[in-house]
C-alpha cells in the first residue's frame, strides 16, 4: 500500500513517516511537498481559494500517481481533505481528523491540547471543540518545544511538554499533541505524565489502515 503524504513544511515529514511505521507498517510513505503553503496562508490571513486549489492539485497528483490513500500533514488544510473525499475514491484524511474522532468516541471530561506555539494550540483546541460536544478543551503552549523539535532533541522536547502540562495535569483525562512536529515523543510523554497522550500522525495512520483493510 502506498500512502501519499502531502506536506506543507519539512518538519512534518519524519513524524508522518514514524506514524505510518507504527500504525500502518505495511504502508510505503510517498512524500509530496509545497513548503510555501503555510507561509503564504499566514501572509494572506488564512487559506485562500488559490491555496486550496494548490493543495487539491497535489492531492490530484497523488491519486493519479497511484496512491492508495492520501494524508495531509498540515492541519490548516483540513477543509481540502473534506472536499477531496467528494472527488476521489481513495481515502483522504486531514492531519488530526482521526485523533479528534478518537476523542469524540472516548468522551473524556477534560482534554489538554499541547502545542509548540499558542496559535497552534488554540487552533487545534478550537477545531476539536467543534466536534467533541460536552468535552472541556484546554490549550497550552510549551515554551522551548519548537526549538527542541527542530533540533530533534527528544529529551528536551519531552521535558518542555511535561512542564507545560504539569500545572493542569490533575484536572485532565487526556492529552493531545496538536502538531506533527512535536509528536515524536508521545510514548515517552505518556509515561512521564501518567495519562493517555494521543499522537495525530499515529491516529491518522491507524485510521487509514482500517479504511484500506
TrEMBL record:
InterPro entries: Asp/Glu/hydantoin_racemase, Iso_Racemase_Enz_sf. One of its GO terms (molecular function) is amino-acid racemase activity. Gene3D superfamilies: 3.40.50.12500. Pfam families: Asp_Glu_race (PF01177). Belongs to the HyuE racemase family. This is Asp/Glu/hydantoin racemase.
